[in-house]
Amino acid sequence: MPRRHGSLQFAPRKRARTQKAVFRSYSELPLEKPTLAAFPGYKVGMIHVMMKEDRPGKLNIGQPVTLASTVVESPPIEVIGFRPYEGTYQGLKALTTAIKVKGDSPLSRALTLGNGVDNWDEALSKVEDNKERIKEVRILAYTRPDLAGIHKKKPEFLEIPVKGGSIDARLDFAKSNVGSRIKVNQVFKAGQLVDVTAVTKGHGWQGVVRRFGVELLRHKAGKGRWRVGSLGSRHPPYISWRVPRAGQTGYHKRTEYNKRILMMGDLTEEGSIDVTPKGGFKNYGVLRSQYVVLSGSIPGPAKRFIFMRHPIRPKYDELPVPEISYVSSIGWLKR
């Protein structure tokens, strides 16, 4: 009997509303100093990395292993303000928005700025008067895809929580970084785990065999093979939502957990390792700014917006910096 294999966890399977996939929750970081809970990037392509197995509990620990890895280019983000939230009986509510941005900013491609926005002084006075009610602080920032290797100028406008330390320390962190850039190596470090969310590669309208993995009917089936054997009962005369049907496949928002950062680099600094292969990455090109190499695959095609956060359910507490000996795009680092 044909059986469906599609998880009902992801119903309804329709196209994502936007390519800018973000997280709905973030982990509380046990850190003394505040830091960003997440950081954006753009998917570049895949390579494979040879390193020494150092995860505790593995049978081949200490031996060389080869891992499929994904390169994510993460140019710095520009901070233009912050937004404190107060706790109410209905949940978090924005207290105010402190923002300082000029009209000729690259953000004008995504938002209507006019001659610029500046409510800094009045917003800070409101924050000082209601500091005891603040429960969370989030920075307002936008990406710089023009600094990456993709032909894109329109940035993504993001609201990223600040985690770690006290509320006062988070407010000071947000104030001090307004008007400056934050790099990915200020948020993550090599060896740690991260969660990744993105919109998957779209495959358009597909039938039930590809979409849900149902079996082909026998060759003498009356009205076709690439379909379900039965849509359900005649009475009641409707089709249940449990019956696999043809429809949109791919272009869904998906989250993957515990991707390890194997390497980090900054091509704007001398001496950094460039993992770009000869001729560039397929469908992407060459790296131009900061990058992160993650273990395994992540959702989406090349150039897709990627959002990474500190792990919300980490598999390991602390992992060392990986000892990498070979990268497929550049060759041996050490033997």
What does this structure look like?
This protein is mostly beta strands. It folds into three domains: 14-74 and 185-201 and 251-335, Translation factors (Elongation Factor Tu (Ef-tu), domain 3, Beta Barrel), CATH 2.40.30; 77-182, 2-Layer Sandwich (Ribosomal Protein L3, Chain: B, domain 2), CATH 3.30.1430; 204-227 and 243-249, no CATH class. The chain is built from three helices and 18 strands. The chain has helices at 120-129, 167-177, 208-212, and strands at 35-36, 38-52, 64-73, 77-88, 91-94, 98-102, 116-118, 134-142, 157-163, 181-182, 193-199, 205-206, 247-248, 253-266, 290-295, 305-309, 324-327, 331-332. Strands 1, 4, 5, 6, 7, 8, 9 and 10 form an eight-stranded antiparallel sheet that branches. Strands 2-3-15-14-11-16 form a six-stranded antiparallel barrel. A hairpin with a 3-residue loop joins strand 17 (324-327) and strand 18. The longest helix has 11 residues, at 167-177. It is globular. The mean pLDDT is 94.
